[in-house]
Amino acid sequence: MKFIALDVETANSDCGSICQVGIATFEENAISDTWETLVNPRDYFSSFNISIHGINRGQVLEAPTFEEIFCVLEDKLKDQVVLHHTAFDKRALSRAAQKYGLELFQARWLDTAKVVRRTWQKYAVRGYSLKNVARELGISFNHHDALEDAIAAGKIMVHVLEESGLSLDHWLDLVDKPRKKRRFTV
């Protein structure tokens, strides 16, 4: 089954200040396509955010704005299964769309952090950060690069699918349901 992993980086504490987008498409549990771009958020860069991802204002001056890449995002993500690790990336897309008066497209969103928490008991309460889970699964990547983070989230989902034996559709249904009892698959 096909799914697309998404990650964004932001210029400051406003989650709509997207300055980088990374997308990795997975088909049959392997990467089939990638896309990434820097984005000019038309906003200030906080020193804190720069210290996390290393992207600064000078690097994005000639980059497209969110408005300019929105049609590409819509083309790649609309009506697809889109993975993100924690709610931040989905919230950032929604906030950026709102900021520019754009309507966010429909997709089947799946938070891999929630999937990880329901798959492995040791991550039920804490330790389910992208960096930590990737390290535990032997996935090496350059953390806080949007494409690298998207690829890592996708690879984590591949591990979940292979270890749990459950389908992507099952996970989409399971994560949407409220949690009653702790239920782990592995």
Automatic annotation (TrEMBL):
GO terms for cellular component: cytosol. Pfam families: RNase_T (PF00929). The keyword Hydrolase applies. SUPFAM superfamilies: Ribonuclease H-like. SMART domains: EXOIII. InterPro entries: Ribonucl_H (IPR013520), RNaseH-like_sf (IPR012337), RNaseH_sf (IPR036397). The keyword Nuclease applies. It comes from the Bacteria. GO terms for molecular function: 3'-5' exonuclease activity; nucleic acid binding. Keywords: Exonuclease, Hydrolase, Nuclease. Residues 2-166 form the Exonuclease domain. This is Transposase. It comes from Candidatus Syntrophonatronum acetioxidans. The lineage of its organism: Bacteria, Bacillati, Bacillota, Clostridia, Eubacteriales.
